Amino acid sequence: MNDMRLTERKVDTKEMKIQARKVQVYYGDTHAIKDVDVDILDKTVTAFIGPSGCGKSTFLRTLNRMNDTIDICKVKGEILLDGEDIYDRRVDPVQLRAKVGMVFQKPNPFPKSIYDNVAYGPRIHGLAKNKADLDEIVERALRGAAIWNEVKDRLQAPGTGLSGGQQQRLCIARAVATSPEVLLMDEPCSALDPIATGQVEELIDELRTQFSVVIVTHSMQQAARVSQRTAFFHLGNLVEYGETGDIFTNPKDPRTEAYITGRIG
Ligand SMILES: Nc1ncnc2c1ncn2[C@@H]1O[C@H](COP(=O)(O)OP(=O)(O)OP(=O)(O)O)[C@@H](O)[C@H]1O
């Protein structure tokens, strides 16, 4: 019996990708994230939900130090990626963001060719030995983002000339090209039509076989469709976190229940 407990504990530790402890975020005097503790599992889709302004995007951005780019923003507490503090001064944020990639609300391809959009990360991080190697990385990333067949004959065409849904999948390919360990997605479907949304949701489900995905979404239906774990934020607090099915069918906190039944938010 003891042995079994040990084995279970070992598996749990291995599956942990990010551990956030007592995280506080301030924008000047605004206390946007209050004492948040959360464990993000590997090879799992975790959804952050909650009313507008509750801090979902702010907390998401702490996970790859995107908040560093905002002067008035201060982050306190600890965020560990595979047990290592990402806010340690020896950590290079550019390297970190290759490991913890990000896809934004509005597709934002660079004003470059489709090929160069995807090759950008591998080039700056020196991931390809030669041109053939780079070609392979680009193809693998575009296939991984389920857009290869649509663009393989026009890799030199500008990325900005693609449809919105294709641009978002191109941005996912760009993030995937550096072989991230975590992919952060901030409302990745909010600018997409239902068909493109369905394609991106299918893709998210495939991506989680390779790494951990964290998605901010305003759509509870989307959270229920794509995620295995859900965190509900309210006024900067992480109110409830657990299996997505439990959060939606059996919420423990009255604030979660009020949100998922549409009474707040
Ligand atoms: N760059 C910023 N400067 C100052 N305050 C900010 C900034 N970004 C966010 N905030 C504040 O931090 C709080 C949390 O905002 P955040 O955007 O993280 O919430 P959210 O839950 O993602 O909202 P939404 O669902 O509307 O995108 C809000 O009070 C917001 O006004």
Automatic annotation (TrEMBL):
<dbReference type="InterPro" id="IPR027417">
    <property type="entry name" value="P-loop_NTPase"/>
</dbReference>
<keyword id="KW-0547">Nucleotide-binding</keyword>
<keyword id="KW-0813">Transport</keyword>
<keyword id="KW-0067">ATP-binding</keyword>
<dbReference type="InterPro" id="IPR003593">
    <property type="entry name" value="AAA+_ATPase"/>
</dbReference>
<dbReference type="InterPro" id="IPR017871">
    <property type="entry name" value="ABC_transporter-like_CS"/>
</dbReference>
<keyword id="KW-0592">Phosphate transport</keyword>
<dbReference type="InterPro" id="IPR003439">
    <property type="entry name" value="ABC_transporter-like_ATP-bd"/>
</dbReference>
<dbReference type="Pfam" id="PF00005">
    <property type="entry name" value="ABC_tran"/>
</dbReference>
<protein>
    <submittedName>
        <fullName>Phosphate ABC transporter ATP-binding protein PstB</fullName>
    </submittedName>
</protein>
<feature type="domain" description="ABC transporter">
    <location>
        <begin position="18"/>
        <end position="260"/>
    </location>
</feature>
<dbReference type="InterPro" id="IPR005670">
    <property type="entry name" value="PstB-like"/>
</dbReference>
<dbReference type="GO" id="GO:0005524">
    <property type="term" value="F:ATP binding"/>
</dbReference>
